[in-house]
# Entry
Amino acid sequence: MCRRTAAPPSPPTSRSSSESRSAASVLGNADYFITSGDKIRFFFEKGVFDDKGEFAVPKDRSLNKVGHALHAHEPLYEKVTHSDKVQGIARKLGLVHPVILQSMYIFKQPRIGGEVMSHQDATFLYTEPLGRVMGLWVALEDATVNNGCLWFLPASHNSAVTRRMVRTPPGTFPLTDFIGTERDYDADKFVPVEVKKGGVVLIHSQVVHRSAENVSEDSRHVYTFHLMEAHQTRWSPDNWLQPTEELPFPPLYTK
# Structure
């Protein structure tokens, strides 16, 4: 069954102050995100609403992404994720027991698609040992320098992880926090990776990458998902994303 939920509900109206409404809204948005690992939820691009909460851009261009369990609840994305080609890639890489962690449809909307700062996926999807997570980034449209293609820092897959996003203790706010600090990177050393529609980029969890804001008139739609080699790997209980009773991380291999 497909589990979709709408955007976060409005904050309770029983609190009169703007500060209380703002805090409730932030808390609701944070909970909406952190409980999205086994559901299909919708996340808006920054700045798409005006001060009155009305759309400042066309609704069909307002979404930043949909996530994080398309692979489990939407037959098309389940089929793509478990396809023979994807399973073949995993086998060629020697993965023994790969499982699917999360999946997302990313829009990178024309003119407003936001910048993604330099980061390592292991900051958010941490394992022991490191290097057990791989992203598959499928271009559904041409990804170019103009519309916000990926940029990579060569050889950075050998880098340690110095910053992590972690869950905070139950009952505390915010629901997640960062520990450690991100290193400074030389912007001139990043290399753009333009990809034609249908192309796939494999992303090591430690490689440093980013994408620029989309200031073009073209969108840059992508389907992306992450695999983890579960054999002899410990998934950190501090990660924001956790398997649930309803949706344990499903195995990639179907045969």
